[in-house]
Structure formats: structure tokens, C-alpha cells
Amino acid sequence: MQPGMVMAAPYHLGGGDFYGRAGNPTWRALETAIGDLDGGRCVLLPSGMAAISTLLRSVLRHGDAVVLPSDGYYATRQLVADEFADLALDVREIPTPGPWPDGVFDGVRLVLLETPSNPGGDVCDIAELAERAHAAGALVAVDNTTATPLGQRPLELGADIVVASDTKALAGHSDLLMGHLSVRDDELAERFVRARTLSGSIPGPFETWLVHRSIGTLDLRLARQAENAAALVERLRGHPAVSGLRWPGAAGDPAHEAAKRQMRRWGGVFRFELADAAAVAEFLRRSRLVVAATSFGGLHSTVDRRAQWGDPVPEGFVRFSAGCEDTADLVADVLQALS
Ligand SMILES: *Cc1c(COP(=O)(O)O)cnc(C)c1O
Predict the structure, then answer these.
(1) Interval 297-315: pLDDT, tens
(2) Which residues, in sequence order, are bridge partners of residue 273?
(3) Ligand 1: distance of its center to the CA of 250 in Å?
């Protein structure tokens, strides 16, 4: 090879295994697996936020309009408000359950939906909103973290891009961070790969291998988590200490009908309110199985009091992530801790 040829080669496109930042067989194995589940081409990133920032940096230009969920993952709004301030974006924040006013997508470059939303578990109709956004010329991305690809396939519903934190239920063991983007458009996929290679925002091969090892039990974990959530929601309904109980998997929940149309499985994440912050602390002190953690979707049941992170929710708002414990044990423990 002539001197200078190495730099001239399009090394950012990956494919070769000459340098770990451009590509390696461990990434490709997991990207093939997740891409199959999403129904698209997957590009791994080292965290959900790395996937979201790679998406926004690759797609948005100065002065663009972008639609974000006002009730979704808080760091996404923070990223746009702080790190992207110089882009002078026209940011339109809409709550996931709507209303989605006429003209809301006019002149918009990118619409980011999050359904079910974190922390509220609200749902929007991906197919309907994708059709409206496409008619206005916008790209549509769906944050699919809470659903996982086994619960929902946004690309089949008309979205252009799946973005997800695999740190949560997909990896499911609360011991690593990972994220990904999935698309059907090869040009978009190449843009994401180039951004990953040149920014150096890359997953570690060991974490990648752990995620691949873990997705073999994703179906089993989601099934038990949903079973535990259903049992807890049933027992907590009407409980004197509990208000605002919501789970998209529950018949009668305001999100249930929309969720049923587009989801194939429920996860174990639901929400409710206790009187105040002290009541949540007391609940956690008394429980033997439930621990405080801001992540969710893991083997162990966890509670996150979202107001502590600045989410616009009441002080006693609890996002409960049902784990894979024995259902009777978990229900008994939660009820005694609330008594
Ligand atoms: C956790 C989360 C993220 C961020 O993922 P990290 O892996 O923590 O970077 C993004 N979106 C949603 C909905 C999340 O729950």
C-alpha cells in the first residue's frame, strides 16, 4: 500500500476488523441479533444517551424544529436544552398522550416519540403519528426502551428510527450500560456508524457480549415481570395508601387500548403515588425485596422516586419496576411494607 492510502480509505465505514473502534465481530453478532428483533439495521452505542445524542447530532442542523416528549426521559430534554443550545433549535415539547395539535409537525426535521413513556407509562399511537409526521416531511424516531423489541416494533409501525437504552430490560441484569439505533435506511445507518467511529463513542466488547448472552432470556424475564406487575397492580388498586395507579397492561388503564394496538408484550414497569417523599422512604425501609434504584427492567424489583431527579411529578410519585421474584413473595412483601 502506498503511503497515505490508510488515511484515504473510508475507515469510518467499518466492516474490517483492523481497529476496534471501526468494527469488530462481537458488535456485529449483537447488532445482527437486535437488528433481527427490530426489523432493521442496528448500530450499537455504549449507552441510551449515546444513542440519543448520536441520533440528534446526525440529523439536526442549526435552526431546525424538533418535537420531543414533555413527559419522557428527562436527560433527553436536558441534552437538547444545554448541549445543543448553540443549534438554536425550535423545540416543541408535547405530552405523550397528547393532544397533538394540527400543524404540530409543520417544518419539523425530527419527531422523537417515547412510548410507553418513562416514568409515566403513557402511550401514543406510533402508526398514526408517523403518518402525520411523514406527511409534513419529518423523520420519526421512537425511544423503545421501556417496551424492548419483543414488546413493540416501531419500524413496522412506520417509524424511521428506533432508539433505545439497552441498559434497562433488554440487558436486564442492572450491571452494564448499552444503547442502540435501528433503521431500515442504509444511508442513515452509515451516518450513525461514521458518527460512532469518528466520535469514539463505542461500546466495550465485554458489555456487548454480556448483552448478547442476556437477550436469550428476555422473553422469560418480560413474562415474569409483567406477571408480577399485574399481580401487584391488582392488589394495590383501592389500597388506602396508594393513588394514581397506572400500568398500560391493565384493562381500563387510559393507555391500555392504544398499547394493545401496537404492543405484543407488557413489561413490569408501573407507577403510583404515596403521600410524600417520607412515605416512599418508609416503604423502602420496610420492604425486604424492593430496593431504590434509578434504573429499571432488571431481575430485582426496584423503586425510583422520580421527583428527586427533577421530573415534573408529585413528591410521592413512584416508578415501580417489577422484577423476576416469586409472585406471591413479592406481593406479600409489598403489602406488608405498605401496611
Ligand atoms: C434510561 C433511559 C435512557 C438513557 O439510557 P442510558 O443507557 O442510561 O444512557 C433513554 N431513554 C429512556 C426512555 C430511558 O429510560
Answers:
(1) 999 999 999 999 988 899 9
(2) 243, 317
(3) 24
Cβ 48 under 6 angstroms from ligand 1:
yes
CB atoms within 10 A of CB 10: 10
CA dist 123 and 269 (Å) reads 13
Give the distance (Å) from ligand 1 centre to CA of residue 88.
24
In angstroms, how far apart are the furthest CA atoms of the chain?
77
Whole-number Å distance between alpha carbons of 92 and 70: 9
Which residues in 16-41 are b (16+ Cβ under 10 Å) and which e? eeeeeebbbebbbebbebbbebbebb
| pTM, two decimal places | 0.95
| Ligand 1 center to 56 CA (angstroms) | 15
The answer to whether domain 218-338 has CATH 3.10.310.50 is no
Q: Does domain 25-215 have CATH number 3.90.550.10?
A: no
- For the chain, residues with pLDDT lower than 50 are 1-9, 14
Q: Is the CB of 296 under 6 A from ligand 1?
A: no
CATH topology match: 25-215 vs 218-338: no
Residue the block writes with cell 433527553: 76
